[in-house]
Structures are given as structure tokens and as C-alpha cells.
Amino acid sequence: MVTRGMASGLQRRLMVLLLLPLCLLSFGSAWFDYRLADSAAVQKDRQLLQLMPLLGDSVVAPGRDADPPILLLAPAMEEFLAQRPGPTAYAVTEMDGRLLHGARWLAGLRPATREPEFHSVEERGVTYRLVVQRVQTVAGELVLVLADGSDPRLDWVHSVLWRVVLPNLLLISMVALAVRWAIDRALRPLKVLAEAVSRRSPRDLDPIDEGASPEEVRPLVQSINRLFGLVNAQAESQRRFIADAAHQLRTPLAGLQAQVEAWAHALEAPAGAPGAAPDAPDTIRRVGGAGAEAGIVLPAEQLYKLRGAARRTSQLANQLLALSRADERQLDAQAMQRVDLKALCETVLEAQLDAATARGIDLGLEAEPAQAMGHDWLLRELLGNLVDNAIKYTREGGTVTLRCGLCEGAAGEGPVFLEVEDDGPGLPPQERDRVVERFYRMPGTPGEGSGLGLAIASEIARLHHSQLELLPGLNGQGLRARVVMAQAADKKV
User: Fold this and answer.
1) What value does the mean pLDDT take over residues 199-217?
2) Which of 135, 76, 126, 75 is nearest to 103 (CA)?
3) Residue 205 domain-assigned (yes or no)
4) Same domain for 27 and 143
5) In 3D, which of 274, 276, 279, 296 has the Cα closest to residue 287?
6) Which DSSP string corresponds to 251-262?
């Protein structure tokens, strides 16, 4: 997620950093073109201004009566009017605006001073550059006008859309596509790296291959690998601590539980039986020792509580040890073997039968021949935790059923399943995802469990490329814990 946003941010930044200078260059090119057109226009203004004396000298004689002055254009004027690339025009008028020679639309311009004046006038769709000046001629003071329709600045303004804007936009669009393609190609190793990291399991802390990363990204990859190493070392240290602590606790806890079980058995034995405690009130019993003064006097209720605590502590130590052993890294070196699920269910049923009988629970088995590839001891731990959990939270006199076999509708090499169903209180839908978290117990749950049973079962299912499904039981009552696994390819025993 973060890496995806980072790659997208890099793309945007690279696009901006590459296209912004191109846009600035395009605008600079347009401005430069305009400056060139402006410079050329200034040159043309000077040419028009240089032709004004020639136009004045072209008036060679004044007119008589109502006749206009005699006009004989100089060769330079004739060349200007005939060979100019754009339309041209001239006019010779009197001070009152009366046209003497030239284009009628130029008449009426009257400069306020003798200094030349420049104007831009549009006539019949053409914008002309005009110079107007009062000139003293042989026919008196006249107003001379020269018009040039080939002003570069005006041409640039009219053709800016076709000659500057559209070509530049087309160029920028093509460059943007090329840059985007190049950026995508250049950032593809980053995307591959991000996808590889996102697909990893939280427990996969193997270092990333630095050689497969671009040179610019290798410092980041090296930092990630260093972080993976630190996290892996810390996790490994915690796993070793839990395993060592659970292993060291098993022996003294087993001894304590054996001693407490012996005391409880002595209390529960009929009077006069071998090993029975002396007669005493139900609340106070004398256990251990040879004589009345040598034993330990304990209330029976406290002794039963002590037995329950010893059992729970011993079970917790065994669960912690199983959780530390169910580690993907340690199991990678151990090849999976063919596991007979029916025999596995029978073994677990025998181990849990006494606990079910003590609570009056009908513990049954519905097993079909089925085999799966896995670790026998881990699957036994998984099924044992599911059955223990069902017996613990099913009401007295309830029913718990173990099942295994081919999935419904599967044939040949189809998947197989392990299942434990009870008719207990079940789980609310919103709690089914949380109960597989370590040390989580649903609020209001009776008993004193540790919240590890379903977590261990879920972890073992994941190690077998499956997941623990928690579904409603028959008719929506109780809980059905189910694990679906691939069937062993070779069915021969």
C-alpha cells in the first residue's frame, strides 16, 4: 500500500519534472518567435518611414484649377507597391482629408504634428500597418499615407494558434506519452519489488534479493533486509524463550499435577479403601503422611481448586510448547507425510473420552477413510485442541462429533476435511474472526481457558495451506470447526 503510493508519487513527480521544463521551453519558444516577429516589424516600420520622403518627392507638380497634383512614383515606390509579399496601398490627401491620389479608405487620417505616426487598421480582413505624416511638397503641405499588410507581428497573432499553440500542444502530448511509457518501464522493478513484498506472509522474513533490484533502490533493499534480520532475530529469540520456558515448566508441573491428583484421589476414595483419607468433615480432609499429625490439612474445596489450577497450568505449558513448535521456518526442513485422518480421529477420541465422560457429553465419531499430506503430530494437536474446546464449552449432557472424509461432491483426488461439531452455545458471527487470535477470549465466556486453543488450530491449518473455518452447527445451533486440506496424491498405504 505504502509502496504503491510511493511509486505513484514518483511517477507524478517525474512527469512534472520532465514536462514542466518542456512546457516552459514551448512558451519560451513562442515568446522568442514573437520577439523575432516584433524585431522584423520594427524593421518594416523603418522601411515604411524611409519610403515617406520618396512618396513626397513623387509629387512633381501642383495641379491646376480642380486638377490634383501631378504624381510620378519613384522606382523604389513602384517596387514597394508591386513586389511586396503582402497587400500594400498608399494615399495622398489634402489637409482637409480630400483624396488626391491612392486608396480611398486611407483618406481622412490627419496627424496632429509633423512627426510620423504609426497605426494598425483592418480593411477587408487584412490588418495593415500604416505610417501617416504631414510632408511639405511642391504642391504644398499634404498628408501622405503608406500601408503594408505584411506586418510580421500581425501575421504571428493571426497564425499563433496554428503555428505555435497546436504544434506545441501536440508535441507536449506526444512527449507526455513517451515520458509516461519510459517512466513505467523504469519504475517496473520498483513495482515488482512492491508486489513481492506485499505478497509475503508476515512470517516470511527472508532477505530480498538485492541483485534483482535497481542500483538506485539497493540501499533501500539493504535497509529492509537489515530490518528483516533484526525482526527475525527478535522473533526467534522469543520463540526459543517460549519453547524453553514451556519445556522447563512441563516437568515440575507434571510432578505437581501428579501429587495433587493423588491427594484428590485419596479424598474421593471410599472410606476404608487403600489410600483413603481418614474420616473427617467434608470441608476438611487430612492428606499425605503416615499419621494424624504428619499430614497436611486442606479444605477439600481448595484442594479441588488446586487440582484445576495445576491442570490448566500444565495445559497452558503444553499449548505454548505446541505453538512454538508449529513454526513455519522449523517445519520447512521437515517433509510432509501421508496422514490417515480416520486413525487420527480415533486416537484423539480415545484421548478425550474421559474428559467427555466426566461432563456427560456424548463424544462420537463419523469417519470415512481419508488421507492427507501433513505433519501427523501437528494435525493431532489441531484436532485435540478443537475437541478439547468443544468439550469445555458444550453444556453437560451435550454432543460433540468428530468427522473426517472426502468433501461433499469431491471425487478422486478431491479435498478432504477434518471437522468437530458441537451443540453448545456457538459463536456470534462478529466474534469468529477474533477468537482465533492468541490469548483472546470472548467476553462472558465461562471457564478459565487461556485463549490459545483455536489460535493453535488456526496456525496449524495455515501451515497445511488451509484455514480454520468456524461455521454454525446443525440447524444453526452450536459450532462446527472445519479444516479442508488437499488429499494425498498416492492413496496406497
Assistant:
1) 74
2) 126
3) no
4) yes
5) 296
6) HHHHHHHHHHHH
pLDDT, residue 196, reads 78
- Regarding whether 387 and 316 lie in a shared domain, the answer is no
Domain-embedded: residue 166: no
Q: For residue 278, tell me if it sits in a domain.
A: no
What grid cell was written down for 364? 462420537
Q: What integer pLDDT is reported at residue 434 of this predicted model? A: 82
Sign of the Cα pseudo-torsion (42, 45, 47, 50, in order) = negative
Do 400 and 362 form a contact (C-beta atoms < 8 A)? Answer: yes
23 with 87, same domain: the answer is yes
How do residues 342-372 score in pLDDT, each as one tens digit?
Answer: 999 999 999 899 889 988 999 999 989 889 9
User: What is the domain range of residue 454?
Assistant: 336-485
Kindly state the helix (H) or strand (E) to which residue 242 belongs, with its residue range. helix 218-268
Query: What pLDDT does 493 receive?
Result: 38
Residues 6+ apart with CB under 8 A from 59: 69, 70, 71, 92, 137, 138, 139, 142
Answer yes or no: is 193 within a domain.
no
For residue range 119-168, what is the model confidence (pLDDT) as tens digits?
Answer: 888 888 787 888 898 888 888 888 899 888 776 555 555 555 566 667 77
Give dist(CA 211, CA 190) in Å, integer.
13
Domain CATH code at residue 305:
1.10.287.130
pLDDT digits (tens, 9 = 90+) for 241-265: 665 555 556 566 666 667 666 666 6
371 has which bridge partners?
340
31 and 134 assigned to the same domain: yes
- Does 313 share its domain with 377? no
Q: What is the CATH number of the domain that holds 421?
A: 3.30.565.10
pLDDT tens per residue across span 426-467: 888 888 788 888 777 776 666 555 667 788 888 888 888 888
Spatial distance between the Cα atoms of 138 and 56, rounded to a whole number of angstroms: 9
Average pLDDT over the chain, rounded to an integer: 75
Which pLDDT belongs to residue 285? 46
Q: Distance between CA atoms of 141 and 133, rounded to whole angstroms?
A: 10
CA distance 157 to 129: 14
Query: Rounded mean pLDDT of 293-321?
Result: 61
Domain co-membership, 308 together with 422: no
Q: What is the DSSP letter of 476?
A: G
The backbone region for 108, taken as left when phi is positive above 0, alpha when psi lies in -120 to 50, beta otherwise, is: left
Q: How many domains does the chain have?
A: 3
Q: At CA 243, angle to CA 240 and CA 248, rounded to 5?
A: 120
Q: Is the dihedral of CA 415, 335, 458, 393 positive or negative?
A: positive
- Quickly state the pLDDT bin for 294 (edges 50, 70, 90): very low
